[in-house]
Structure formats: structure tokens, C-alpha cells
Amino acid sequence: MTTTETEIKFPTAEFFEQLVISANKTLSDKTLGFAILKLGIEIVSPNSINRYVIDFDGYEINFGGQVESFDNTEVEAVVTGPQSSYFDMFKDIQQNSMATGSNTFNALTMAGFPLNVQGEDQVATDKVFRFAETIQHFLDSAHQMPTIVEQ
Fold it and tell me: Domain 7-146 adopts which CATH fold?
């Protein structure tokens, strides 16, 4: 499937780079909330594992790029899970301007399934849940992106 300027492939580095740009453009300090967390996003598909680094730095978000491994990235915690769960969340966000019901970050991670939070220690894992609302606002900024198509 080819994409147009009104589409963006998921999961790709371009997708996460655009998500960071969208979040930084649209979220105010009050909406985003203050967070200090270097987060890894690991998306598992049948044929590959894609890893991305997102750096929540106060009221700003930075894209740390796509990486082969989280070693040597200073990532504190990783959210890992199947591509289908991430894709369903982003499609829900685009349809409703925010994640709803079982597609929210909290719902997807709370039980450790389908998305699992893994940290270097309990404090790092706790930070993900402490900043869950900020992470959700970040993810919800996908509603302003081009149509997301799964690759």
C-alpha cells in the first residue's frame, strides 16, 4: 500500500517524530503536565520489533529516534506490546479525538496486558503510571495527524 500526504505509516520513526511535533504544537503546559521520563515504546509485530525513544522533559517532549536496542539510551521504562494494540489505540484516537474506553493508555497497561510496562526498577515503572495522564495527552495528539495506516 502506498501512502499519500494525508496518510502516515505506523509504526515508523516518521510517525513518532510527527507525533512529538504535533504534541509540542498543540498541547499547552496545563494540558501536558510536567513530566521527567525517558520512555521506550516497543512495538512487537509477527515479523519485527520496533523501538522508539520519547523523552518527556518538563513541559517539552523530544523524539530520541528509532533504536535497535534500549541499551545505552538512558530509557527508564519501556511500554511493550503487540502492534495491533497500539494501532487500535491510535485509530480510536483519530476517530474520537482521544482514546476511549479500553483503548486508553491506562486501560491498556494497568493489568500488564496487552501493553506491559517494564522499568529498570520499581521507581521507573511507577513514573510511567504517575505520568499516565501526560502520556495519554501526548498520544491523543495523534488526532491531528494524517490518517494512520498500518504497515
Answer: Nonspecific Lipid-transfer Protein; Chain A (3.30.1050)
- Residue pLDDT, tens place only, 26-68: 776 556 778 999 999 999 999 999 999 999 998 899 999 999 9
Q: What is the DSSP letter of 101?
A: G
Break the chain into its structural domains and give their ranges: 7-146
CA distance 79 to 51: 10
Identify the CA nearest to 77 among candidates 24, 132, 114: 132
Q: Give helix 13-26 / helix 132-140 axis angle, nearest 10°.
A: 100
Cβ atoms of residues 38 and 131 within 8 Å: no
Query: pTM of this prediction?
Result: 0.92
Q: How far apart are CA 130 and CA 123, in angstroms?
A: 10
Closest CA to 57 of 36, 29, 78: 36
Euclidean distance between CA atoms 116 and 113, whole angstroms: 6
Tell me the residue ranges of DSSP E strands in 14-128: 35-44, 49-58, 60-67, 77-82, 116-119
CA 117 to chain centre: 12
What CA–CA distance (Å, rounded) separates 127 from 122?
9
